[in-house]
Amino acid sequence: MHFTRPRELVIAGLVGLVIAYLLFALAYGDLPRLPRLAGVSLLVLAVIEVALAFSMRSRARSRRVVNAVSAARTVALAKASSLLGAIMLGAWAGIAGALVPRVPEVTTATSDLRSVVIGVVCAAALIAAALWLEHCCRTPDDDESDPDHHPTG
């Protein structure tokens, strides 16, 4: 397994954007209103991953042994979470793209846009937390063998 690449996140975001945009553009009137805090579950995941990142980072800095299976599972969690965050960020953006033109004519669109803003912030927080967690799981050897790694000296 390799560490998350930016293009993977962009592709995932575009998939979420297209699907959500088409769904909301074609069937908005038939869908229920968006719950105000629909995106907050992503923020809960982000908080958990930040706590896990602090734990992994402190273990690495204190040179404590980290179980290889545990580290691999943590990297897998981080990768899956960053992809989920990207899909959801794209989906929220797609929903916004479908709703903005409807704001003048549909009163619920304004309320749904507030939910979208919360979702966008929470999805972005999840992406950031997951990428940081993934970074905290890297060893010095990973940085040297990573083709995307560019030494600064």
Describe the structure in your own words:
This protein has 153 residues and is mainly alpha-helical. It has a domain at 38-139. The chain is built from 5 helices and no strands. The chain has helices at residues 6-27, 40-61, 68-99, 107-136, 140-145. α1 packs parallel to α3 (68-99). It is elongated, with a radius of gyration of 18 Å. The two termini are 28 Å apart.
Flag low-confidence runs.
Answer: 149-153
* Terminus-to-terminus distance: 28 Å
| N-to-C series of helices and strands | HHHHH
Extended strand count: 0
Query: What's the mean pLDDT score?
Result: 87
Computed over alpha carbons, the radius of gyration is 18 Å
Strand content: under 5%
- Look at the helices and sheets and give the structural class: mainly alpha
Shape: elongated
Number of helices: 5
Portion of residues within helices: over 70%
Sheet of most strands:
none
What are the SSEs and their pairings?
Elements: H1 6-27, H2 40-61, H3 68-99, H4 107-136, H5 140-145
Helix pairs in contact: 1-3, 2-3, 2-4, 3-4
Attribute tags:
disordered C terminus; elongated; mainly alpha; 153 residues; 5 helices; 73% helix; single chain
Concise structural overview:
This protein is mainly α.
